[in-house]
Amino acid sequence: MAETIREIKKEEIRPGMYIKLFQKTKEGDKEKLQHFEGLVIARKHGKEAGATITLRRIIEGVGVEWILPLSSPKIEKINLVKESRVKRAKLYYLRNKSQRKTRAKLRKEIRSEAGVVNETVKAEKEEDAEKIQQK
Fold first, then answer.
1. Is residue 73 part of a domain?
2. How many domains is the chain built from?
3. For residue 20, how far is the Cα from the chain centroid?
4. Quick one: which of 112, 30, 93, 42 has its CA closest to 70?
5. Whose CA is closest to 114, among 4, 2, 5, 3?
6. Domain range holding 109?
7. Nearest partner of 16 among 36, 35, 38, 34, judged by Cα
8. Exposure of 19 by Cβ count < 10 A (0-12 exposed, 13-18 middle, 19+ buried)?
9. pLDDT, tens digit, for every residue of 101-121?
Protein backbone atom coordinates (compact mmCIF):
# COMPACT_ATOMS: atom_id res chain seq x y z
CA MET A 1 0.00 0.00 0.00
CA ALA A 2 1.27 3.41 -0.92
CA GLU A 3 1.62 6.21 1.58
CA THR A 4 -0.72 9.16 1.10
CA ILE A 5 0.49 12.75 0.89
CA ARG A 6 -2.79 14.47 1.78
CA GLU A 7 -6.54 14.36 1.38
CA ILE A 8 -7.84 16.29 -1.62
CA LYS A 9 -11.18 17.72 -2.75
CA LYS A 10 -13.03 16.44 -5.80
CA GLU A 11 -12.38 19.70 -7.65
CA GLU A 12 -8.59 19.35 -7.26
CA ILE A 13 -8.31 16.06 -9.18
CA ARG A 14 -6.23 16.32 -12.38
CA PRO A 15 -4.81 13.81 -14.86
CA GLY A 16 -1.41 12.52 -13.73
CA MET A 17 -2.41 12.19 -10.08
CA TYR A 18 -2.18 8.78 -8.43
CA ILE A 19 -5.10 8.72 -5.99
CA LYS A 20 -6.84 6.42 -3.55
CA LEU A 21 -10.62 6.86 -3.65
CA PHE A 22 -12.81 5.50 -0.84
CA GLN A 23 -16.35 4.54 -1.80
CA LYS A 24 -19.20 3.30 0.40
CA THR A 25 -20.55 -0.11 -0.61
CA LYS A 26 -23.45 -2.03 0.85
CA GLU A 27 -23.27 -5.78 1.47
CA GLY A 28 -26.50 -7.06 2.92
CA ASP A 29 -27.19 -4.95 6.01
CA LYS A 30 -23.61 -3.75 6.43
CA GLU A 31 -21.98 -0.73 4.87
CA LYS A 32 -18.21 -0.69 4.34
CA LEU A 33 -15.58 1.43 2.62
CA GLN A 34 -14.01 0.02 -0.50
CA HIS A 35 -11.00 1.78 -1.99
CA PHE A 36 -9.89 2.15 -5.59
CA GLU A 37 -6.30 3.15 -6.19
CA GLY A 38 -4.93 4.22 -9.54
CA LEU A 39 -3.67 6.83 -11.95
CA VAL A 40 -6.14 9.46 -13.15
CA ILE A 41 -5.89 9.25 -16.94
CA ALA A 42 -8.88 11.48 -17.74
CA ARG A 43 -11.30 13.93 -16.23
CA LYS A 44 -14.43 14.69 -18.23
CA HIS A 45 -17.24 17.26 -18.09
CA GLY A 46 -15.40 19.74 -15.85
CA LYS A 47 -17.48 20.98 -12.91
CA GLU A 48 -20.84 19.65 -14.12
CA ALA A 49 -23.03 17.39 -12.07
CA GLY A 50 -22.13 14.57 -14.47
CA ALA A 51 -18.35 14.99 -14.18
CA THR A 52 -16.36 11.74 -14.22
CA ILE A 53 -12.79 10.58 -13.75
CA THR A 54 -11.10 7.54 -15.23
CA LEU A 55 -8.73 5.64 -12.94
CA ARG A 56 -6.30 3.09 -14.36
CA ARG A 57 -4.31 0.45 -12.54
CA ILE A 58 -2.54 -2.72 -13.57
CA ILE A 59 -3.64 -5.65 -11.42
CA GLU A 60 -1.88 -8.99 -11.88
CA GLY A 61 -0.68 -8.00 -15.35
CA VAL A 62 -4.10 -6.83 -16.58
CA GLY A 63 -4.98 -3.17 -17.05
CA VAL A 64 -8.17 -2.25 -15.18
CA GLU A 65 -10.02 1.04 -15.57
CA TRP A 66 -12.79 2.49 -13.45
CA ILE A 67 -14.99 5.35 -14.64
CA LEU A 68 -16.34 7.02 -11.52
CA PRO A 69 -18.81 9.93 -11.22
CA LEU A 70 -17.43 12.72 -9.04
CA SER A 71 -20.83 13.90 -7.84
CA SER A 72 -21.70 10.50 -6.36
CA PRO A 73 -22.73 10.65 -2.68
CA LYS A 74 -21.05 7.26 -2.23
CA ILE A 75 -17.56 8.79 -2.49
CA GLU A 76 -16.36 9.17 1.09
CA LYS A 77 -12.89 10.68 0.62
CA ILE A 78 -10.03 10.98 -1.86
CA ASN A 79 -6.36 10.76 -0.89
CA LEU A 80 -3.46 11.89 -3.05
CA VAL A 81 -0.71 9.25 -3.19
CA LYS A 82 1.60 10.92 -5.70
CA GLU A 83 1.38 13.61 -8.33
CA SER A 84 3.01 14.03 -11.73
CA ARG A 85 3.21 17.02 -14.03
CA VAL A 86 1.78 16.01 -17.37
CA LYS A 87 1.44 17.97 -20.58
CA ARG A 88 -1.81 16.43 -21.77
CA ALA A 89 -5.37 16.48 -20.49
CA LYS A 90 -6.06 12.86 -21.46
CA LEU A 91 -3.42 10.21 -20.81
CA TYR A 92 -4.91 7.51 -23.02
CA TYR A 93 -1.48 6.81 -24.55
CA LEU A 94 -0.53 5.09 -21.28
CA ARG A 95 -2.90 2.24 -22.15
CA ASN A 96 -0.47 1.03 -24.80
CA LYS A 97 2.64 1.23 -22.61
CA SER A 98 3.77 -1.43 -20.18
CA GLN A 99 3.63 -0.71 -16.46
CA ARG A 100 7.40 -0.40 -16.34
CA LYS A 101 7.52 2.21 -19.12
CA THR A 102 4.62 4.11 -17.59
CA ARG A 103 6.33 4.30 -14.21
CA ALA A 104 9.57 5.41 -15.82
CA LYS A 105 7.82 8.15 -17.78
CA LEU A 106 5.94 9.48 -14.77
CA ARG A 107 8.89 9.10 -12.36
CA LYS A 108 10.76 11.81 -14.23
CA GLU A 109 7.96 14.26 -13.59
CA ILE A 110 6.94 13.29 -10.06
CA ARG A 111 6.94 16.04 -7.50
CA SER A 112 5.88 15.95 -3.91
CA GLU A 113 3.84 18.58 -2.13
CA ALA A 114 7.03 20.40 -1.05
CA GLY A 115 8.28 20.50 -4.65
CA VAL A 116 11.18 18.13 -4.03
CA VAL A 117 12.08 16.05 -7.07
CA ASN A 118 12.33 12.28 -6.69
CA GLU A 119 15.79 11.16 -5.51
CA THR A 120 16.30 8.82 -8.47
CA VAL A 121 15.84 11.69 -10.91
CA LYS A 122 18.40 13.75 -8.98
CA ALA A 123 20.88 10.88 -9.13
CA GLU A 124 20.33 10.46 -12.88
CA LYS A 125 20.87 14.17 -13.50
CA GLU A 126 24.08 14.16 -11.44
CA GLU A 127 25.40 11.16 -13.38
CA ASP A 128 24.58 12.88 -16.68
CA ALA A 129 26.36 16.04 -15.54
CA GLU A 130 29.44 14.04 -14.57
CA LYS A 131 29.53 12.31 -17.98
CA ILE A 132 29.33 15.66 -19.77
CA GLN A 133 32.16 17.09 -17.66
CA GLN A 134 34.37 14.07 -18.36
CA LYS A 135 34.00 14.60 -22.13
1. yes
2. 1
3. 8
4. 42
5. 5
6. 6-134
7. 38
8. buried
9. 777 766 665 544 335 444 555
DSSP state of 122: H
Specify the pLDDT at position 53. Answer: 93
Q: What is the CATH number of the domain that holds 39?
A: 2.30.30.520
Within-domain flag for 1: no
| pLDDT for residue 8 is more than 50 | yes
Of 8, 18, 14, 32, nearest to 99 (Cα)? 18
Amino acid at 101: K
pTM of the model: 0.68
CA 4 vs CA 16, 26, 81, 82: distances in Å: 15, 25, 4, 7
Distance CA 132, CA 135 (A): 5
